[in-house]
Design a protein that fits this description.
With about 375 residues, the chain is α/β, with parallel strands linked by helices. It folds into two domains: about 160 residues, GTP1/OBG domain (Spo0b-associated Gtp-binding Protein, Chain: A); about 200 residues, Rossmann fold. It is built from six helices and 14 strands. The strands form three sheets. Strands 10-11-9-12-13-14 form a six-stranded mixed sheet, sandwiched between helices. Strands 3-1-8-5-6 form a five-stranded mixed sheet, with no helix packed on it. The protein has a three-stranded mixed sheet with strand order 4-2-7, with no helix packed on it. A hairpin with a 5-residue loop joins strand 5 and strand 6. The C terminus is likely disordered.
Amino acid sequence: MKFFDEAMIEVGAGDGGVGVASFRREKYIPRGGPDGGDGGRGGSVIVIADRNINTLVDYRYTRKFIAKNGERGRGSDQYGAAAEDIILRMPVGTQIFDAESGELVVDLTEHEQRVVLAKGGDGGLGNLHFKSSTNRAPKQSTAGHPGEHRSLRLELKVLADVGLLGLPNAGKSTFIAAVSNARPKIADYPFTTLYPNLGVVRVAPEKSFVIADIPGLIEGAAEGAGLGHQFLRHLQRTHLLLHLVDLAPFDPGADPAADARAIVKELEKYDEALMAKPRWLVLNKLDMVPGGERAERVATFIKKYRGRGRAALPVDRVFEISGLTREGCEKLCLAIWDHMQTVKDAEHPDADVRFDEAAPAAAIAPSADVQ
């Protein structure tokens, strides 16, 4: 299955059926009176959020969804049948915008959330509704109301608690595969990850959170370098960012601290709110650093990364791990769990709800290649 997180669609509701002017005509019943029925309601276009769907590929190629019109009324007090509604199922996390105004129509954040995107037109009135003591033979009827039509832009932002950030080959995919049930593609070349991957991390039978891995970000992404900022939107709903850093790069001339600061600058260019999220440094690939050099290399990195003066960067927390050998991963996951509980308690101080309820296993992204 291909992963798509953007689409443009057109939705159109059906028009209401026409009401009719009719009079009762039966043997031995003179002047039977009006009996024209109303027209039927036009079909609506309805969207339902579904946590079992994780891509907008269904709307990449089928772009028009037009409901049928309601039936016209008939004589003998017969109303026209209402048209069937069109049901569109989209992933939880999808935002739907009006393509013309850019206004947010709906943000699908809950499973089975149901919203009418285009309302069907009401049916017209038959002459049955116009009879009165002074107008016993009304000939007027009304046409059905038109259904709504609109162009919409779909944008998927995955629902995850924790987001991974870093350069290509920083070990993000290896890390998420080590701590969760996600199985992303892993290889020894840059940009192996081409689409977001979600995994559920379980630190205990009833304690879990969702972690998201996005394609690597490089310096100049704001100008379109690499995959650009295409997937950074998937981190906007997270509560915590993990900035993974390759502490043992293949290039001996590479400076991990300078590369990490460059990623922070790209993050700031994209979204200040994303920049303001809690961000922990995760120094990866310790298995490739000799034991006697680790402390010095970590201290040097932090000093360079933090910087001085106005350009100084804050450092919330620092973890040293190896995604390959899983060294330090358990400590990091437990710390994330504690942080998630703190966030949950702050958002819902009076609720007795554990954070793992927001981590459905069905939220895992497909593991197929993007073409």
